[in-house]
Write a structure and sequence with these properties.
The chain is α/β, with parallel strands linked by helices. The protein contains 19 helices and 13 strands.
């Protein structure tokens, strides 16, 4: 498979270059040149297949045999070494729980896949690969866990001061010695800017082999595509037609929404994909009014969704050939305030389901539809323990976060850094 840049001003590259380079030389993000067409036999038999079996078929089709069969099976098996439960929480209301990995967030799936894929690739005579990631929530913890003790890889995790939960900070600080936490005296978008600048800087690339573990990297998206096929398979197994079910997705940087779009464009029949946005509603403004202006970031009760500009939006535009009407035919969006989320959490609790704030955006999105009687499935993206204090303040329900925190033992203090690329460059070149 070849991968093209969303900016279309650079030459397509192979899988290795797309994953290790992460961003094209013209500043664009990579997408596969063609989306696979899955055989009818696969679609017809999905209900009888396991998540690992589905994920292997889907990732193999998307990578067009670029990874040896046995290697890919090992990567998939190690990535998905935990359950992804499908639950009906009320008549016609379903959740797919993606948070049963080691750091209790859906990002474990994409990150673990990426780490193992990178580990299987030739990195030019054992040269150490530097991996960069910016995080305001669960990404950093997932990356710290997924890349711990991976040979010849060093990971730099940039996060805004005061921008992480106690659990996320502890998870990052507990990782292996090849993980370097960096506390930035700025906001998440400044962290992202530092990462994108270092990756695109020609002089830095003369010194280091570098990539990103954010959803900028196409390797993060590939296993997520399989989650949509698996969700459809669980619906089919329950006697429900997936094409009659809307899929609600808590949305920040749009990695899951983009993966869902790739699934639909490769032939999966679903209802609408609904991007559930918080007050930082760049996606909703774009889909409703083609508005791509940037507003100051707003802190919400769902910090993992707090972003000014969704980094995967260029991928969505490219997938739909900049035809916004066609994009709107597949993806809907809604902006949901914190008060509505609190009501949604209480409603779910009344149905016997404890949802974290991010998942609650998906549940609330289902209630915002014109036709609320249509079945809906929510991608549950984080374990309630990740937001234990917030949940308690809203529902009075205690989540055993303290017990879970005992599994993590901090090993190092974070580096302190100004929110600028020169500060990051100086740190990286300190021994040069």
């Amino acid at each position: 498979m070849r991968y093209y840049s969303t900016n279309r001003r650079s030459q397509p590259v192979g899988l290795r270059d797309a994953v290790i380079e992460c961003m094209a030389s013209d500043g664009g993000l990579y997408l596969p040149e063609r989306l696979p067409c899955f055989p009818h036999a696969f679609i017809d038999n999905m209900a009888a297949m396991s998540l690992r079996e589905i994920a292997y078929v889907v990732t193999d089709m998307f990578m067009a045999g670029d990874v040896a069969s046995e290697t890919l099976k090992t990567i998939v098996d190690e990535t998905l070494s935990f359950d992804v439960p499908f639950k009906e929480i009320a008549p016609g209301r379903y959740v797919l729980e993606l948070f049963h990995g080691p750091t209790m967030a859906f990002k474990d799936i994409g990150v673990r896949f990426m780490a193992r894929l990178l580990s299987s690739m030739d990195k030019k005579n054992g040269v150490t690969l530097k991996v960069f990631v910016a995080t305001s929530g669960n990404t950093g913890a997932a990356v710290a866990s997924g890349f711990s003790d991976i040979d010849n890889i060093e990971v730099y995790i940039l996060y805004p001061k005061g921008g992480l939960s106690v659990m996320a900070e502890k998870q990052i600080a507990s990782a292996a010695d090849n993980i370097v936490p960096i506390e930035v005296a700025g906001n998440i978008d400044q962290c992202r800017s530092m990462v994108s600048t270092v990756l695109s800087d020609v002089k830095m690339r003369e010194h280091f082999l570098m990539t990103s573990a954010n959803s900028l990297n196409i390797a993060r998206l590939m296993p997520q595509v399989s989650l949509f096929y698996y969700a459809a398979s669980r619906l089919i197994a329950a006697g429900i037609n997936p094409s009659e079910v809307d899929f609600a997705i808590p949305s920040g940087n749009l990695s899951l929404v983009t993966a869902g779009a790739m699934a639909v464009l490769s032939g999966l029949k679903t209802g609408r994909l609904i991007a559930a946005c918080n007050a930082n509603n760049a996606t909703d403004r774009y889909l409703r009014a083609s508005d791509m202006s940037r507003h100051p970031i707003i802190r919400t009760i769902a910090p993992c969704m707090d972003t000014v500009f969704p980094s995967n939006l260029p991928r969505l535009q490219a997938l739909f050939a900049d035809d916004i009407d066609r994009l709107r035919s597949v993806i809907d969006s809604v902006t949901i305030g914190d008060d509505m989320i609190k009501a949604s959490m209480l409603k779910a609790l009344g149905e016997g389901y404890l949802a974290d704030p991010h998942t609650s955006f998906g549940l609330s999105a289902l209630d915002c539809r014109v036709d609320r009687q249509r079945p809906g499935l929510v991608f549950a993206t984080a374990h309630p323990a990740k937001s234990a204090d917030t949940i308690y303040s809203i529902t009075s329900q205690k989540v055993e976060a303290a017990r879970l925190l005992k599994n993590f033992h901090p090993r190092r203090l974070p580096e302190k850094m100004a929110p600028t690329f020169p500060a990051l460059r100086k740190f990286l070149l300190r021994d040069k």
